[in-house]
Automatic annotation (TrEMBL):
Species assigned in the record: Flaviaesturariibacter amylovorans
PANTHER family: PROLINE-RICH ANTIGEN HOMOLOG-RELATED
Domain RDD: start-end pairs: 5-128
Pfam families, A to Z: RDD
Cell compartments where the protein resides: Cell membrane
Membrane topology: Multi-pass membrane protein
Bilayer-spanning residue ranges: 12-33
Protein name: RDD domain-containing protein
Highest rank taxon of the organism: Bacteria
Amino acid sequence: MQQLPTVGQRLLSMLLDHVVMCCILGIVMTPFVLSSFDSDTPERGVFFETKDWIGMIGMITVYALKDSFGGRSVGKRVLKLQVIDRNSGNTASPVQCFVRNLLVPLWMIEVVVTFFNPQRRIGDRLAGTRVVAVPA
C-alpha cells in the first residue's frame, strides 16, 4: 500500500506548483503582452485578437501538462509526491495529468476540496488519478 500524502503536503505542493507555473508563464508571456500595447493598434474593446487566444490556450496547455513528466511537477518532486492512476497504481499518463489539471480555473475550489480529501481533488476524480507520497 502506498503512503498517503498529508493535507499540508498537498496544499504546499499546489502552492509551489502555482507559483512556479505563474513565474514561468509570466516570463514567457511578457513579450507578447508588451507587444499588444502598440500605439498604432486601435482599441479592441472586449474582443481578443487571434494571437491573444493562442497565447491563453498555450498557457492553459502548459499549466495543464505540469505533472506529465513521471507524474511529478516541481512541487510534487520537492515534497516527494506523485500522481498515479487510481486503478492500476502506475504513474499517471500525460493525458490523465492534462485532464486532471484542466480545472485550474477552479484552483481555489480545488484547495478547499483538498482539505477534505488530500489524495483526490476534483481533477483527480475526473482523470481517474490520485496523489501518493513516494519513498525518498
